[in-house]
Amino acid sequence: MIRRMRREKAMDNVLALILAGGKGERLHPLTIHRAKPAVPFGGKYRIIDFTLSNCINSHVRRIVVITQYKSLSLDRHLALGWEHLLNPELGEYIFTIPPQQRIDERWYEGTADAVFQNIYVIEKENPPYMLILSGDHIYKMNYAEMFDFHLEKGAIGTVATIKIPKKLASSFGIVETDDNLRIIGFHEKPAEPVTIPGDPEHCFASMGIYLFNTEDVINELRADSGRSSAHDFGRNILPQMLQSGKLFACEFKDENKKEAKYWRDVGTIDSYWEANMDLVSVDPQFNLYDDEWPLRTNQGQYPPAKFVFAQEYKGGRLGIALDSIVCGGCIISGGRVQNSVLSPNVRINSYVDIRESILMENVQIGRNCKIRRAIIDKDVYVPAGTTIGYDAEADRERFIVSEGGLVVIPKGAEIR
Fold this sequence. Notes:
Helices cover 22% and strands 26% of the residues. The chain has helices spanning 2-10, 48-57, 72-81, 111-116, 119-125, 143-153, 214-225, 233-241, 269-279, 392-398, and strands at 14-19, 40-41, 45-46, 62-66, 93-97, 129-134, 138-139, 157-165, 173-177, 183-188, 202-213, 247-251, 263-264, 306-308, 320-322, 325-326, 331-333, 336-338, 341-342, 347-348, 353-355, 358-359, 364-365, 370-372, 374-376, 381-382, 387-388, 400-401, 407-409. Strands 1, 4, 5, 6, 8, 9, 10, 11 and 12 form a 9-stranded mixed β-sheet that branches. A 6-stranded mixed β-sheet has the order 16-19-22-25-29-28. α7 (214-225) packs across α8. The mean pLDDT is 91. Pfam families: Hexapep_GlmU, NTP_transferase.
């Protein structure tokens, strides 16, 4: 108990900066009207909720969210669902910073530049340590344990890493370490990856999670700002800090507590759909139902979900959902939903058949529709008798179809 209280107090020295300005172009059309961190996930969450929940559960209570691309939806979500959790009178806060152009007239040109352009905020807060996070990954991690590791090693910078098979390394930024987990090299998507000492079958991949001594990283950011570079932490700042000999790799400890560690960048339509479909499986890889690691979000005031017309089952009219997530406000009125995720306030009408699909808030499905392997964004009405996901050629003529054959209907689209 005393050790935990000391750790929680120590985390007061950490300022978290969440980079949440990404366009998420590979997630189009879901990111036409919103930044990637604001994309809904798992029915009632947004992608950024998982990073924010990690912060709260790790007792990181000074949080700055750096936004840029189409941030209205994200700003609204944070204001309604998160800002009230923390007490400014105790020095706790979550607030967003859009591009200020304080230094010059540029927008953010990289992850390091996004932090550098907000250097006045960091200097005003004057935190001893800075935690740099991405707002578009799904995982559970206790940042306090990374902080303990950082102090134990006497590091000026620590990189969170996850062990991956060598055969997958060419898709990641690979961190090279010695036997003491000291970082001695960075390799971006290498064809011949360097493996973990003593483990020739695995490599350390960077998770894009960095903990720095503030003074040391500020000096590097200032120096980098005057160079012609990508102004990126992974490509520029960390390689420059290697010569100090005080960069270390902290292996990811998964609070998800499953056999395989879970860390996902749902950066494409197909990977996004697959991650949602995992949630409706009998034993999902990612556990939403963990009382010890609560996941928070903006909770709308919706009535309970409702399923009706069971009395007319013999006529084929049965309101039912199987192996699915169904959020508040949904009404399944004489239709069938299976292996699907329904966000709040979705209406399924009679004789509808929905399979392996994601339906976002305020979607309405008219009678006699058949829908399979589809993602339907918010505020879409699907007219009665519409068939989606059963004829690939017809789908491509009317809708956006992913490489994996998923039909995607943008927010507010009109279907004729």
